[in-house]
Amino acid sequence: MPGIAPLVDIPSEFLTLKYPLPHFARALAGQAPVKIVAMGSSSTAGRGDVVPYPHRLEMYLRARYEGEQSRNLRIDVLNRGRGGQEAIEELRRFNSDIFAERPSLVIWQVGTNAVFHAYDLDEVAASIAEGLQQLRVEPMDVVLIDPQYTPAMLLADRADASERMVSLISAVAANAKVNLFRRWALMRHWHVNNHISLDRFFDPTDSQDKLHQNDWTTLCVSKALCDAITRAAAV
After folding, report:
1. pTM of the entire structure?
2. Which contiguous run of DSSP H or E holds residue 112?
């Protein structure tokens, strides 16, 4: 995006996951490559010239952990995003895209397409709950990511649905005792408290829908997610 990138802060409340990440921490202390699977839709898969968050997260985690190890630690973030999908469709890919990889950490981005494509939100929440039930019986940690705070999600016919989807995801995560990275609230904080215009949040090549994050917001979210993961792994 042209111009100087705006300055934002990331309060500690957004960097503090509720639960530790013991499987990820043990993987960091082991000898095998550390594997993370990023499951989600287009903001996971990537779009156009925007570098998707899994690629950035891999870079930030490698810089954080590999440099301080006396051994040759390798961290891989496998991008299993698929544009246009929601939890209902993503459940069908769990065996091939998550369980077959045997990761120590799964990051699951959900909720955006449910609102954008007017899904039954209760059905989506039920699918997320089912997915978390499948994930929790495996030796892996889980972090959910809720929707992005962009103009398309705030239109008059979607604003209430967006807030409800965010609340449903929070409730499902709390019930399953799974970590939630609150992307929606973090980006709203930047808009409300740092006075960042919503026009600075979306990809300019997506001027019709104004749904997808741009490179700058993806970078900021990725840094925050990296910090949240490293904090939880150190507990």
Report:
1. 0.95
2. helix 112-116
CB within 8 A of 2, min separation 6: which ones? Answer: none
pLDDT at 1 over 50: no
Domain positions in the chain are 12-233
In sequence order, the 6+-apart residues with CB closer than 8 A to the CB of 60 are: 222, 223, 226
In angstroms, rounded to a whole number, what is the distance separating the alpha carbons of residues 113 and 86? Answer: 6
For the record, the structure tokens of 218 come out as 């993806």
The CATH code that applies to domain 12-233 is 3.40.50.1110
- Cβ-based neighbours of 231, under 8 Å, separated by 6 or more: 15, 16, 17
Residues 10-65 have pLDDT tens digits of: 999 999 999 999 999 999 999 889 999 999 999 999 988 899 999 999 999 999 98
Integer-rounded Cα Rg, in Å, for the chain is: 17
